[in-house]
Amino acid sequence: MLRDYVRRLLQLAAGIAVSSLGIVLMLQANVGLEPWSVLQQGLTLVLPISYGLATVIAGAAAIGLAVLLGESFGVGTIVNIIGCGVCIDAMLALDWVPQLHSLPGGIAMLLAGLELLALGTWMYMRSALGAGPRDALMVALARKTGRSAGVCRICADILVTVSGFLLGGQFGIGTVISALGLGSLINLNFSLLHFRPAKVHQENIAETLRYPRSEDRRVGKECRSRWSPYH
Fold it and tell me: What is the mean pLDDT of the chain?
């Protein structure tokens, strides 16, 4: 049981790291920010905060809306909100990824970042420890509307982009590519990996606290089959 839980935690951490790297690539592509980055940059322009802290604030707002739509949140959600902000700030401070200044190179880097973000999303959602805030919102909308996760992500991204632009966030060709492309990439990756996020039971905080108790071990074993992303 402990080994299985550790494996899921490592999968969560890896997914957050991959997603954060994808976001940094998109930032450094310098061809227009992806939707949530537009909002987060807009927040840094109106508030005296770092980009990482803006990521935390935007994530908290997203999970709050998802909860209002009926989604729960878990350990993975909290780790995602805080972990992404810390990872992004650290990667930017270390200056691992140079900022590009050519349109073709920038678009190529942007597309690579989008793919990493889609892949990282699959990795941490597959751990079933609680979806990331934006993904929880995506899944909540998918369940409420009956639409695919990708379509719901596109709609949410468009609304977020408009909000961020009104706050002064950078808008460019990369923003359009991201707003329309990320949802499509998520759908493609999830389809190729046979992953249906709306069908996966994400472990909430109450279940995490209850799970280690010995009297719940039998229930936990039964629940793990429901957490499998392949069901």
Answer: 83
